[in-house]
Amino acid sequence: MRFWYQAIHWWGWFLYPFSLLFAGITLVRRFVYKKALIKSTENRLPVIVVGNISVGGNGKTPFVIWLCELLIEQGYKPGIISRGYGGKSEVYPLLVDEEVTGKQAGDEPVMIFKRLGLPIVVDPRRSAAAAYLSKHCAVDIIISDDGLQHYALQRDIEIVVVDGQRRFGNGHLMPMGPLREPLSRLKEVDFIINNGQLHADEITMLLAPSRCLRVDGADALLPLNCTINACAAIGYPQRFFDTLNRQHFTIHKAIAFADHYAFSEGDFTQFEPHLPLLMTEKDAVKCTTFAQKNWWYLPIDAQLPVFFEKQLLDKIKEIR
Q: What is the pTM of this model?
């Protein structure tokens, strides 16, 4: 990740041929679906894809939660589909409920379910997840959490979330850079959401932290301005640590784990037990069974301008 988001060293150009190969594969995939050489699946319900063109940590999940809450306020019945990255189930499609764990469905679907209680279906084939959701659940619109590059599923609206700080790194495709698709792909999407920065032709999204909650679910209050430990297993951990600093916490020790890391109780022995431990909401869903009393998580809510709400809702009405 550091290599992708800093100046390219001379040895990095050895990866350039592999990026060209990746670009070729990407173009061929898009061509065969666009020309219907491989048939894509059309769902009877409107499908909104929320994704990105770069790897990891763009703020997509808070936006999906915001979008679902907006739709519910307007009288819609949204459902969510996800690949379930980091999870492995014996059966697909997998309908998330109170008994489904992050090891089965992935941490993000479980986190969103705990927050919203909406129908969420996980399947590596998002087209299969969408078919199951529309057939078996009382929904009237489908939100695809990620899946911009999953062309096997037709979509009505494409929304891309961009990291306002890191943007697109060195601007190269994987593995030389963080891009999943060329920057020209942005010209084809319906909306570009910029996480945290003002940028021309992009909708600015701000992330607002809420009050800290106990990982074990107990009702308690963590005082501000206290000294804490912190951990994060997300695409861009430093953003979480920076948020804690802005909340006036003093971080004694901060440890970043790999994105979607599957925590075990032994991972936390490296923290001083007498200090509160703060983690992300996404990480907390993986730690509820062995959480200590002084483990906390910080919920994050997305905030977007009113004019964008109107634009998006008008677009949905046109589709329906």
A: 0.93
